[in-house]
Specification:
It is built from 14 helices and 15 strands. The strands form three sheets. The protein has a seven-stranded mixed beta sheet with strand order 13-12-9-10-11-14-15. A four-stranded parallel beta sheet has the order 3-2-1-4, with helices on both faces. The chain has a four-stranded antiparallel beta sheet with strand order 5-8-6-7, with helices on both faces. The C terminus is likely disordered.
């Protein structure tokens, strides 16, 4: 029997569909729970799709798990990972009745003790530092007094980050006390109701509705700014052991705080060791990501964040030790890893459609490997259509935000 992987996605990202294709090619069966009009519904790799309801997320997950009986669950955004953690807590309280679901979630994500740690950014950095990993100074910022203390200890520029946010959301780089105060208020505040309603009505994404209505505030962390180049790692691991990994330097991004669009494959022993140490320390399983800064003067990598989920590069099959789908399939089945042929010999990867959307005339679309899934024309068409609309909306939002910034009192 082929192992069944249940994909959980609460927002319309393209990467789950790409990983579904890669896991099916590795020998697995993929089923999904996701919002309407998700790209996962446009690929033949997904054999069964269940609808994710943002107003009743755990009901959606429980129904999908019961219907698909998966061998492993893979979350694709921080909200879906948080849902799984919450479901795990609920099922534990049910005792024997919830044992099978709670064990499935632990098998999929790793030791339950790690669940609260991966979202607590400062705690994660302290844990990494204890493992001998380079990390920037970090601190939880609860109020203005904490903020002033962090500024005095770390200086400017300073990075402020809200827990349980990803993809550039919930991050602000500040250069003055006035900017820091404003960022702290904004990052800690519940989502604006207008934003939550827009996502619910237009994007069919209801994940922000409850946090907005319940006025749920975010925990904000201060992190010392590391000047340099961004880098990222993705790993497939099992019970704390890394089975395969990918390490990239980020060459281009959608915008200053957004996701990567062009990456260069690298070998970095210190990044690899950091991922292995954290996977072992947290007893991680499944797919996880790590973000780094390569210090400008030394090139030394500083771990700045852990992503407790699959990331957008996980489908890239780049040879022995770099094939995450093959490694994950082997872990679930207990078979030896059967690495697929490399998709390219080019170390520069232009992600589709991200780089095409960022700049249709980008030279990386021809000089690098342009990662277009030509074998799935419906997926390509849908992706271009959806992300073009999304990009137009965000361009408008950025223009509005820039206009609002002009009205703020200057420090």
């Amino acid at each position: 029997m082929k192992p069944t992987f249940l994909f959980v996605s609460t927002c319309r990202s393209f990467s789950p569909a790409r990983l579904a294709m890669a896991l099916v090619n590795a020998g697995g069966t993929v089923k999904a729970v996701c919002p309407p009009r998700h790209p996962l519904r446009k690929t033949s790799a997904v054999s069964q799709v269940h609808t994710y309801h943002g107003l009743a997320p755990l009901v959606s997950l429980v129904g999908a798990i019961a219907a698909t009986k998966p061998d492993l669950i893979l979350p694709f955004d921080d909200v879906s990972a948080a849902h799984l953690h919450e479901l795990h807590r609920r099922e534990l309280r049910r005792g024997t009745a919830g044992a099978s679901t709670s064990l499935l979630i632990e098998r999929s994500l790793g030791a339950a003790a790690s669940f609260p740690i991966v979202y607590a950014r400062t705690t994660t950095m302290e844990l990494a530092e204890g493992e001998g990993i380079r990390v920037p100074k970090s601190a939880v910022v609860r109020n203005e007094e904490d903020l002033r203390e962090s500024i005095g200890r770390m200086g400017f520029p300073l990075v402020l980050k809200a827990n349980t946010t990803s993809g550039g959301d919930g991050v602000s780089i500040v250069h003055t006390l006035e900017e820091a105060r404003y960022a702290l208020r904004s990052l800690a505040a519940p989502p604006l109701l207008a934003r939550a309603l827009k996502k619910a009505l237009i994007d069919q994404d209801r994940t922000l509705v409850w946090p907005s209505l319940l006025r749920r505030r975010y925990v904000v962390n201060a992190q010392a700014f590391v000047a340099g180049r961004e880098a990222t790692s993705a790993i497939a691991c099992w019970e704390g052991i890394v089975l395969a990994s990918l390490h990239f330097e980020v060459l281009k991004k959608q915008d200053a705080g957004g996701p990567s669009t062009v990456l260069r494959l690298i070998e970095n022993p210190e990044m690899s060791a950091a991922a292995e140490k954290m996977a072992r320390r947290l007893e991680l399983s499944g797919l996880h990501g790590f973000d780094f800064m390569l210090e400008a003067q030394t090139g030394n990598p500083y771990l700045i964040e852990i992503n407790p989920r699959a990331t957008q590069v996980g489908h890239l099959r780049l040879g022995p030790g770099r094939d995450l789908p093959a490694a994950l399939y082997a872990a679930v089945t207990g078979k030896a890893i059967q690495t697929a042929p490399k998709i390219t010999e080019n170390d520069t990867i232009a992600l589709f459609p991200q780089e095409w959307i960022r700049n249709p005339a980008s030279p990386f679309l021809t000089t690098g490997y342009h990662d277009v899934p030509w074998e799935e024309p419906d997926l390509v068409e849908d992706c271009v259509h959806q992300l073009s609309k999304q990009t137009a909306w965000y361009l408008k939002q950025r223009w509005i935000e820039a206009l609002l910034r002009m009205r703020r009192p200057r420090p």
